[in-house]
Please model this.
Amino acid sequence: MSALLEVRGIGKRFGGLQAVSDVSFNLNEGEILGLIGPNGAGKTTLFNLVNGVFKADKGSITFWGKDITGHSPDQVVHLGLARTHQIVRPLSGMSVLENVIVGACFGRAYQSMRDARATALEVLAKVGMASRAHSSARSLTLAFKKRLEVARALAARPKLLLLDEVLAGLNPTEIAQMIDLVRSIRDSGISVFMIEHVMQAIMNLSDRIVVLNLGRKIAEAPPAEVVQNSDVVEAYLGFPDIVDKLRGAQ
Amino acid sequence: MILRRPLFWLILVLAGLFAWFPQHNNNVALREDLILVAVAIILTTNLNLMIGYTGYVNFGHIVFYGLGGYIGLYLATVRGWHLITAALTAGVVVSLFALLFGLGILRLRGAYFALATIGVLVAVQAFVSNFEPWGRSTGMYVAFDSYAPLGGPKHALWTTYFLIIGVMALSLILSLGIKSSKFGLGLFAIREDEDAAIVLGVNATVFKAIIYSVSAFLPAVAGALMFFKNGMIDPSIAFEYMLSLEGIVMLMLGGQGTVAGSALGAALYERLRSYLLTSPRLSGFHLVIAGALLLLVIRLAPGGLIGWFYRLVPRSREVIE
Model:
């Protein structure tokens, strides 16, 4: 397996806050890579650095053999790296179908309007939204808005998809459907890099997991090892020996 | 295909009627009324490309019209160019000027962009008022012999009228064409959420600069023709601030984002304005009406007349674009 995405020593500072510092990792082709960490760990900032919303202060990013450090988000998506937003951003005044057509028109495929329409209908069927194609994007429930985010990104025909908390706020049935969708995306040959707080889901889905805390990478391992890692437990629960101390006090 | 869209044919019929009716019974008064309607439609449809399609409010749209008028008049009278060549050159030069400015000020968003467009208007007016070759604050007059290549003054006025009707038809067709194009889809995406549009792959900087430049072209051509027809130009009539604001009223009244709405709003408002301006009791009152109208539209029918009609007859959306 070759690395599709290589992040080397990436860093970003906002004023006095070092949001991400010296993070390096690889994402292999065909892989689902999870990204977890407590609130404020820098996960979304890392996504924003990878897809070019923020310019990195330090380090480099290579995608599919090309150096994309400093590229703008529209250039990045043309190269085949699409993303969804944690806080959904539908183009509210447009229909669901038109939203997805935008993705197809300006994504990696850069399709004509006619081809984009066909792609959009196909992608909407894949995410289970075919019946809503002509609804207004504004009128959708949160679960459907999240799927719309995924559909728009998929319509770009990406090589790698960044999913930013697509499960947050969904009910158990919706989560199960979304998990199936993510698996089917990977099976169709698109690699996935996902931020998620729903632990059970990310442990199930990911081949490997990168853990961030306070902007630094504290672990990178398969799910089973990550949960055993003392740094990770500490990041989430505080000092691990607290558990022992509490037990001793009983 | 644009040929399959009802509105395209309607535009041609409308332009045909505009051209045929006054000439048919040699009604010069009607021609002068219609020319003002045509110019209002040209300015409003092109302003709609910025406000309605892209979501960027341009308060200084009239600068394209005035600058086009100056360049056109200068080339046609001082340099002795043919009117059509002069008008087209004015359009190209103003578009390039807009492209240059656009790349600078379109980095701003929302209210800051709107303020910058006022700045452009004021700066250009100040420049022209002090520019010796264009007659500073006294402006320029059309030399009588400039009408000669067009077959004398009487004939020249009719020719100019037909040209302006042509520019009106082109403005409407341009809006219609952009609306259904991939380029137009990118603009709509920018209007809805610029950051999301960029993440979806829309090169917003380039798209905005292009549409700002495109929206300058036909108004500049119209300005060249119109001021040539009027026979004179000076900085206060070329860059009339109020006309810039009234353009926004016309757009909101008809329905921003729609081709039919911008034309309808322009025509209705222009007729009302002419009536008020020429009425002995209400003269000078038209801006009060404009303000009240804008408030009413924003409050009661944010989609304008066309938006209101869409709600009455939802299926009309596919025919009346």
Remarks:
- Strands of chain B lie at 140-141, 232-233.
- Chain B touches chain A at residues 180-182, 185-186, 188-189, 191-193, 195-204 (CB under 8 Å).
